[in-house]
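Readers of this paper often ask what the protein records in our data store actually look like. Such a record has a labelled line for the sequence and another for the backbone structure tokens. The tokens are whole numbers drawn from a learned vocabulary of local backbone shapes. We quote a single record here, exactly as it is kept in our systems:
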Amino acid sequence: MPGHKVCVIGAAGGIGQPLSLLLKNNRNVSELSLYDVNPLVNGVCADLGHIETPAKVRSEAGMEPERLRKALAGCNVVVIPAGVPRKEGMTRADLFKINAGIVRGIAEGVADVCPEAKVCIISNPVNSTVPVFVGTLIKKGISAEKAHKHVFGVSTLDIVRSNTFISEALGMDVNQLADVTVVGGHSGVTIVPLLSQIKSKSGENLSSKLTAEKIEQLTNRIQNAGTEVVKAKAGAGSATLSMAYAGAKFADAVMRGLDGEKGVNVCTYVKSTVASDKGVDYFASVVTLGSDGIDTIHGLPETTHYEQDLLSVCFENLKTNITTANEFLA
């Protein structure tokens, strides 16, 4: 059957298992390759293999680099939830120390085995792991142009949460709300939802239905939603099911773009000039996806004074996140 060969790296984990289930059910996937250092991934593969959808499932397990490369072979979309999850009391700097090395190893494998693959990075902290992945590809001989067009930081969960919280606040069906534009990064104060831009799918601007106080409350909730889940799980984990949903939604958009569908617009954290005048080389904004990854990166719309203040804080934090990545690469 025609379709895409998708590799999930970290497929035995809390995000990886439900993400793999959702991708097994995606009609655009012809083959699902599962990889994890944990041999449990072979059981996940067997389990998913019993599901009556056309996608074929295979798996590789182990620490050896050749296992990873075997899993990546022939894949044109790679989704990476691998790494340790954030636990209560753990900062994203703590996460970076562990996950940066994991992401670098995966990037080396992609460069060696499937250099044309479109890569969707979920591994936190995304603000830093994406620059590490891109930088590693370039060090391995992949052109900067290709690396910049093919690597995405998955910030979709911020949009999913925004859609949910705002539709609830407005008392409307979430299916009638156009995707909220969320720019910046993918952690805390770097997450900037542009609530002045919220619209219905019919094009009606809905921002006037929210008071300034409500906009501030919603913004704070969106920025801290990850911590909300960590606390609700009593330190036993972070967002897994909602992240898996968001990751599958983003991967589906990438595949639709590769298939030539027009007008596939998503928010994603990528190498960008949108905020380069602020000294920020990576930034989440709306991009149009195409047959070779990123087709167009869209600039910021007109923002309110409140949103401009949020962006100022965002820029300073992103500079630190990106510097941390660059120091690791050096």
Notes: The CA atoms of residues 287 and 319 lie 21 Å apart. Residues 305-329 form the longest helix (25 residues).
